[in-house]
Design a protein that fits this description.
alpha/beta, seven-stranded parallel beta sheet, 389 residues, seven-stranded antiparallel beta sheet, binds alpha-D-glucopyranose
């Protein structure tokens, strides 16, 4: 008997299988705006005239093969996929396009930066995502399309044509990550047709929810709130997506681990952004922080990658949980240095140990679980998970 075709829902789960376990990815925002270093919205926020901004297309000279370094760094950080801006709102394409000369092959870089990126991800065994902005400040019909049907027709053909190029010229792509759908609605963008084309060209791909359709996964931005379906929180490292050398503050390794704990507990992913310099260098302190996170994941990854079963938990001062079946992982962020108890666990705890280390004695009094034999110093100063069965 021929196999029964999958239902839409079954096929979505098939395509999402790797993503549901991926947990951690690297977002790369790279474009002409990187040369200015004042956020990727700089053209719009500073009202830079197009003719002036366009000159950045010729002055951009990235260094050799930066994507190889990003992919190696992502791997070391314990990240399992990347998403890179193939075209941001500025309209400049990092890929070769037949549909516009405003692209990296024909202008300054004189190279296909998307091809380099794809090759680099594959070399490290990482999944490949393409960010693509629907909103386009460079295309003459990018705003007109809202009020003029002929302009809309031209613009939508252009956008669909570019998405087709991205889905055709770079081998297997794992994520299509649309962004900003101003100024049209789903009907105006012909979003149903857009997605159908992407699935046809890339049968294993997953698509986000930013072309005004729900797609395969949700994308909460700069906040972490679990959704009831597949989801991914995208977060900046320092408040800017594009290269931001004048931003003084970065999320610390402890904060990144905290975010990972939070997404894991909600069954989601963290897409943490890096904005490389125009040369393509991910500035310090990001590489160092990512490596620290990666080392931590190397030791305690089990409590993050696989521990994504939902559980109700009360807030507590010292830490928070992830869960896999009957195993709980209590991520202790504030090490008390002495025996302590966890309140509000409505289950029997049979054993406890410091992950990768010492067994602890458990005394349970109803929903108060006392842990005894706690060392004075935190076994891991970043965060120590205690495994409870
Ligand atoms: C927003 C911003 C954009 C950024 C994106 C990342 O939509 O407009 O600059 O690329 O979020 O999620």
């Amino acid at each position: 008997m021929p196999a029964k075709p999958l239902t839409e829902e079954q096929d979505r789960e098939r395509r999402l299988a790797w993503f549901r376990r991926a947990r951690f990815g690297m977002f790369i925002h790279w474009g002409l705006y990187s040369q200015l270093g004042r956020h990727e919205w700089v053209m719009n926020r500073e009202r830079i005239p197009l003719a002036e901004y366009e000159q950045l297309a010729d002055t951009w000279k990235p260094g050799p093969w930066p994507a190889r370094k990003w992919a190696k760094l992502a791997k070391a950080a314990g990240q399992r996929y990347l998403v890179m801006t193939t075209k941001h709102h500025e309209g400049f394409c990092l890929f070769n396009s037949e549909l516009t000369d405003y692209n990296a092959v024909k202008r300054g870089p004189k190279r296909d930066l998307v091809a380099e990126y794809v090759e680099a991800c594959h070399a490290e065994g990482l999944k490949v995502g393409f960010y693509y902005s629907l909103m386009d400040w460079h295309h003459p019909d990018g705003a007109q399309c809202k009020v003029n049907e002929k302009a809309r027709r031209r613009f939508v053909d252009f956008i669909h044509g570019q998405i087709a190029e991205l889905c055709t010229n770079y081998g297997k792509i794992d994520i299509m990550w649309y962004d900003v759908s101003w100024p049209l609605d789903a009907a105006g963008w012909e979003s149903e047709k857009m997605n159908a084309m992407v699935y046809k060209l890339q049968p294993d791909i997953i698509i986000n929810n930013r072309n005004q359709l729900p797609g395969d996964f949700g994308t909460p931005e700069e906040h972490i709130v679990a959704e009831t379906r597949a989801w991914e929180a995208c977060m900046t490292f320092n408040g800017s997506w594009g290269y931001g050398p004048i931003e003084p503050e970065y999320r610390t390794p402890r904060q990144v681990l905290g975010m990972l704990r939070q997404v894991a507990a909600g069954g989601g992913n963290l897409l943490l952004n890096c904005g490389p310099s125009p040369e393509g260098i991910i500035p310090s302190p990001q590489p160092k922080i990512l490596k620290q996170v990666g080392e931590w994941l190397g030791k305690y990854g089990e409590s993050i990658y696989d521990a994504t079963d939902p559980m109700q938990q009360e807030w507590s001062f010292l830490g928070a949980f992830t869960r896999k079946g009957d195993t709980l992982y209590y991520h202790v962020n504030r090490w008390p240095g002495q025996d302590f108890s966890i309140g509000g666990l409505h289950c029997t705890i049979e054993s406890a140990k410091i992950m990768g280390g010492k067994k602890l004695k458990v005394v349970q009094e109803k929903d108060r679980v006392l842990l005894k034999g706690i060392p004075a110093e935190a076994p891991d100063p970043l965060c120590t998970p205690i495994e409870l069965k």
